[in-house]
Each structure stands twice: as C-alpha cells, then as structure tokens.
Design brief:
Helix content: 40-55%
Order of helices and strands: HEEHHHHHHHEEHHEHEEEHE
CATH superfamily of the largest domain: Porin chaperone SurA, peptide-binding domain
Number of helices: 12
CATH architecture of the largest domain: Orthogonal Bundle
Length: 343
Amino acid sequence: MKRILTVVLMMIVPVLIFQGCGEKAEQDGKTTENAGTTVEADAGRVAIIVNGKEITGGEVDHEVRLMMQQMGGRVSPDQMQSMASAVQQQAVNNIINRTLLRGAAERDNIPATDEDIAGRIEQIKSSFDSEEAFASQLETSGLTMEAFNIEIKYTIMIETLMDKITANLTKADDAQAREFYDSNMDRFEKPEQIRASHILIKVGPEDTDAIKADKRSKLAELKSRIDGGADFAALASENSDCPSSSNGGDLGFFGHGQMVKPFDDAAFALSTGEISGIIETRFGYHVIKVTEKTASTTTPYEDVKEEVIQYLDGMGKQAEVEKYVAALKDLATIEFADSSLIQ
C-alpha cells in the first residue's frame, strides 16, 4: 500500500525531490538496470502557453529526463524506449497542472514563509549523507539552489492550497477500511520469497563460441568442486563476476519476477540448500544455491488498518484535487506552440 499519492504529487512537484534519482548499481541476475533516454530539443523555444505563462521546450525536456531518470532503476532500456511517448505526455500534463495550481495558489495569496522554505529544505537535506551529496544531486537534477528554493516555495503553497480544497472531506472509518481490505486481499499478500547465492561467469556479446565454452567449463569445474564439498561462498568470493561476490555470492531475498526469467525459474524450483546446474542468462553462466525460503503470507487487517484509512483518505483527496484541476483547465487558456505536445 502506497502512502504517497503519486498522481497528486506529480501535479505539484517537478521530479526533483530526488526520490529514486540516485544511481543504482546493476546486480547481475536482476532485471532492473540503469538506463536513460535523452530528449533533444531547442531548450529556449516556447512549447506551451498556460494562461499567458510561457513554458519552454527545455522545461518539458527537463521534466521528461528527470522522469526517465527516476524510472531508470526499475525498467529495462527497451521498456523505457517504448514508454517515451507516454512519459512525455505525462510530463506535459504535470507541467500544465502545476502551472495552474501555482496560479491558483498565487491568486488565493497562499503563504510560504522563508522559515517554512528553509525548514523543508533542511528536511530534504537530512536524507543525504552530506551537504556535498545534496549539492551533487541538485546538480544532477539540473537545478541551482535559487531555483530549488523557488520550487520548494511553490510546493508548500500548493500543498496548503490542497489542504484548503480537501478540508471538508469526510474521513474514512473502520467499516470502509475493512470493506476495502476484504475486497482487495491480494494487496496485502506478501508473496513467497527466497534467499539465494550465485556464482556468475560473465559472457559478453564479443565472446566467441570457443570463449563461451571455456567459461562454461570453468563454471562446471567450480560446480564439481562444490558438489565435492567445497565452500560455495568462498568460491563465489574468489570467482564470481557479480558484485555480490563481496558477500559470498549472496543476493539477499527476492520474489518472483525480480530476476531475469531463466534465473528466476531455476531458483524458485530449488529446495532450501539445493544447488542448481549451470543456468544461462543474458548475463552469462550461473550456479545458484538457495539458502532460505519464506512462504507467502497475508498481513492481518489490524496491522494495516491505519494505513488503509490513510490510503482511502488520500484517494478521496486525490479525487477532489483532480476535480479542482479539471475545473481550472476548463477555465484556462492553454495553447500548444509545439503541436507534437498536444494531448
């Protein structure tokens, strides 16, 4: 259950508050990879005009790049490429919504004091290891400190406006929360997970069949030593090409679908303590050892009751804000100087 209303937050804040924007090292065997898509554009051209406010192509492209960056650790490069058009549409929609909400907050004279802004920035900074790490992420996001202050100011103003818009909504009660829980039991299931270690011998696209055969033979020899009683973790530390070698090949716990399919199928077919044969994936050749398994469970209602109530309240607020934004759009003058951005 997500506590944060992603749709509403994307209306409010550019993708700059750094959630999910850090680098994520690739772990061989896992399906998640870093990837980015660069949108080429004339940054200074006027792309959209919202109630007289000009939005440049550079602003749209910046939003797209940051959204792509945010997704980089969760989708493959091919998936990201196929999503490029949808991401651009979402970026345009976010910017328009944000511009309309900022205008409404200004018309209502919603305050954001210097103290409020400074406090929010300190809160964000506290999630970083150091001032240097914060500054580095700011630079990566393409923002100056002055621009960041402005974004935080408007974020606070719009949050206050949203509180005003949703102030009279009725809170969800226990009966509604229980009904939602009973109707959505699958959301509260914790699927089966396994903990596994592996030894990887990487294979690259430049490797010839002879090189691949040598690498497979190397892993077969290691597998033979393991079958003969050699320590799996020690051999992984000495021979595996995966970063997990520093942990004796330990990949930690993972669920179905988190690994590339051949690895996933092989790992989940093993019993605790069992070791696979040689498994081939796009990363190379693996030998896998399952060290722990946890059965699927369902979280009891009482353990998630408050979270469900918060979720239902949040969904009610989201609907109210979306209705408010839709009304702003009906009254707005929105011109697309760049026809490719028309939704």
